[in-house]
């Protein structure tokens, strides 16, 4: 995992011993909140409101105090191509117990 202070993704370089036709794998770059704010022109509260509305890419928690955003998702948002992932509704344990006969 790579956390970037730059706004561009960098492809992984193939090793010198790799075959010439071997595919080059991309590494995902991540952005911290100040970089996201600068890229999209939104303040912190507006970003979190759009995340809540599922209109903006959600952050990835690296630890309890560190959140990052995927560069590719932020770029898709800027291009107007971001689509929130579809999630299935889940039932809580309490709701499941209440449904028991």
Structure description:
This protein is 33% helix and 14% strand. The protein has 101 residues and is α+β, with helices and mostly antiparallel strands. It has one domain. It has a 4-stranded mixed β-sheet. β3 and β4 form a beta hairpin. About 12% of the residues have low confidence.
What attributes does this structure have?
101 residues, alpha+beta, 4 helices, globular
Compact summary:
The protein is an alpha+beta fold and 101 residues long. Helices cover 33% and strands 14% of the residues.
The strand count comes to 4
The proportion of residues in beta strands is 5-15%
- Taken together, the total number of domains comes to 1
Overall outline: globular
SSE arrangement:
Blueprint: E1 2-3, E2 29-31, H1 33-40, H2 44-52, E3 60-63, E4 66-70, H3 71-79, H4 93-99
Parallel strand pairs: 1-2
Antiparallel strand pairs: 2-4, 3-4
């Amino acid at each position: 995992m790579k956390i970037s202070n730059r706004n561009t993704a960098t492809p992984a370089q193939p090793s010198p011993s790799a075959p010439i036709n071997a595919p080059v794998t991309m590494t995902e770059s991540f952005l911290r909140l100040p970089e996201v704010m600068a890229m999209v022109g939104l303040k912190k509260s507006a970003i979190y409101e759009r995340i809540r509305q599922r209109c903006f890419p959600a952050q990835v928690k690296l630890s309890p105090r560190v959140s990052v955003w995927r560069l590719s998702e932020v770029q898709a948002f800027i291009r107007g191509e971001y689509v929130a992932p579809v999630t299935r509704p889940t039932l809580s344990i309490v709701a499941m117990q209440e449904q028991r006969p």
